[in-house]
# Entry
Amino acid sequence: MAAGLLVTSAIVALIVVVAGRTTNAELAVAPPALLSLAMLTAAGGGLLMAGFALVFKKTRSIVLLMTFGLMPVMMADGVASWVNQSPAALLLPFVGPLGIAKGMIIDPGAWSWSMVAITTLASLGYFILGLVLFSHLRMVAMRRGTVGHY
# Structure
């Protein structure tokens, strides 16, 4: 997972640099850094779903529901205003990093370091929670003897 994330990030970074240089756009560092927090949250969610797959086997429908459920959050124009209206929205998965990143692009002065700190802690929390639950569910699957089916 880490290798795939690293390779994908490198490819996206290369595309962004080439696109920025050919269009003479100013490249900001903060929005991609915030998107990396969204990827960290996604990695935690992926670990959680992997743990569920070890124990329950049939998780494809849950993954599809989560994917389609998160699409409006990722594509909505209002995400940037959600984080400005309610600081608690920063704690929701993907809403904080994507909202602040969109807010930085739309209005560069509309964010604060405290918002970034809350979002960073929430993203790290989701990753750690996914890691801990994955290792617990892996142990449950090993006790049940369902790991050998993979």
